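Form P-L/3: holo structure prediction, ligand adenosine-5'-triphosphate.
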Amino acid sequence: MQHLEITDLCKTYKNGVKALDNVSLTISSGMFGLLGPNGAGKSSLMRTLATLQQPDSGQISFDGINVLQHPEQLRMQLGYLPQDFGVYPRVSALDLLDHMAVLKGVLNKKQRKEQVAALLQQTNLYTERKRAVSSFSGGMRQRFGIAQALLGDPKLIIVDEPTAGLDPLERNRFHDLLSEIGENIVVLLSTHIVEDVHDLCSEMAILAGGKVILKGKPASLTQQLDGMIWKKIVPKSALPVYQQTLDVISTRLTGGQITVHAISPTQPAEGFESFYPELEDVYFSALFGKQPEVKGGVIC
Ligand SMILES: Nc1ncnc2c1ncn2[C@@H]1O[C@H](COP(=O)(O)OP(=O)(O)OP(=O)(O)O)[C@@H](O)[C@H]1O
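OUTPUT (holo model):
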């Protein structure tokens, strides 16, 4: 059982933006989802955990390693898929993965050949192994990104916004691939897509403005909003009134009509129906500071 402990991490960039504001999280083996809007600080946290940048203060420990003091020890156990990763033009998937395996310390040639072939199979890229990665589609590229992250048998995998820009089929493929990764390692998935966390993660946290604003199990967080989320289809012209008078957490356009989701302990207005909340309702109610007293999760 691996264990990642993040304590009071702070980071302010030179331009004065406070990207991480006392972030503390305890993350155990399995898939952990870090959800947050653009600019929340997710990549700053991922890069810090991947030892690519230093925080101003705070602690990180992984499986007994003091990560900020001994970044090289973490790097031996780390697989990282950054938000954008560059590839050399014209280098085939096979050659690039082999090269990356050497950099990762897989020096035995036979072992490396086997590992590279196995990862290309696992990511469904084996038949395309001689093609240049630079010619891959977005989905294939992300699968290649997972293959390189899995080199060297890492115990901590960090995946930053992996499904942004993928079509639904490739996103499902990518989800299947992530869900196959061992349960005995820590997989940290950063995303602004609520379905990614819903589909994959047993634990999650929401980051906004550099702060962790909610954490818990997705199922408990939705359950504790049961009976409090209401919806109604309304004409577009009536929307401003609802927004001014109710705790509206989201509006969705479906088939040209607007469905309003509101949070309230009782029916907020005539015509609103209660329904079992979705993770998106948890996310939006947290972002707008409308979460009620929490039992299964922690408001931070
Ligand atoms: N190198 C940097 N120098 C200055 N400001 C930065 C730097 N990197 C990020 N920021 C700022 O820090 C804040 C957090 O950015 P970060 O990229 O960590 O957020 P994010 O949640 O990953 O967002 P996104 O999904 O848009 O990448 C933003 O306001 C961003 O503009």
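COMMENT: The first strand starts at residue 3 and ends at 12.
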